[in-house]
Design brief:
This protein is about 30% helix and about 20% strand. By secondary structure, it is an alpha/beta fold.
Length: about 100
Amino acid sequence: MLHTINKSPFEKNSLQTCLRVAPDKSNILLIEDGVYAALKNTDFEKNILEGQKIHKFYVLEPDLKARGLDIKSLIPNIDIIDYKGFVKLTVENSRVQNWL
């Protein structure tokens, strides 16, 4: 299952809710302001590191760039994908859950 999170974790609790209910081995894609959850040295780094034990995380590169974020500032082991990768994830997963 693919989960997309588009809200900043500093604004909404979408990330925490997703991590609490997502089935094991889910794919979690951070898009739009959700990309802020992928940054090192934030209050949410622990959530992502714990989540990586059972989920695969992705971040949409155009959304990182649009916010002036550097790839070097990301938590390790988060795959950076482009729009083609987003489409591929959507096709590979039978269901998509958007967390608003």
